[in-house]
Predict the structure.
Amino acid sequence: QIPLSLSLHFPDISLPFSSFPRYLSPFLFTSQISLCQKWLQSKQRASVEVCSNQSCAFRLSRVLILCTRSLSVSPDQPLAVPLRTLEVYLSPVSYREVPGEASSRLLDKLVATQVDCGYFQALQRVLETRVPPPDGPDSAHSALANSLLAFLTLPLLRPGGDRYLERFVSEVLCQTLTPHTAHLLLPHLSRSPLPLPTLITTVHTSLIANSLPPSLSLLFSILQLTQGKLGGSYVSSLTFTFLFQEVTC
């Protein structure tokens, strides 16, 4: 039988990420771990059923949202089970036995719901609270850092991930620049198959439309990502747009 959904004791995951509790009690965290373990134990059967049963898919979506949020609000609790649950149920590999496009539609919905519920903010917070600040861009990465970076960029690298770029830029790259962003995330993005021209176009268009706040962190990030990779004229145009908005705000 597919595991039950969240009990009434859990925080309301429909709350905005900023309003979600910053701490889960040991009892609630243990309950969540138990629930995740049940989903992991039944993953072969569950991965098929969630693609055809809307109620089951809804329960899974709620569990995954709680996994993401609990990682960022319980800094003293183990990460392995929530991360493994996210890894299993957000991976296309888990749905290989599902015929047709049902699995793609489910994954699109799961990822979109995660992003809407503060996925980028949560994973960025986990990265900054669980991984020691790197000394520089050449610092060795731990296995945990590499795993969290892969999770953080997962929605962007999926088919159709372009639609999450503005959200990612707003919730991560526009925020206060930290050593984790400068020395871990930006080098990771540079090495990833992220379509850099699309990212630049998104930022350029969003700045002009005032849908992104101009910030020095964003300027630094864009210049780092485009260093030696794109024509100078386009980057100069983007930089000018940014500086013009910064001066006139």
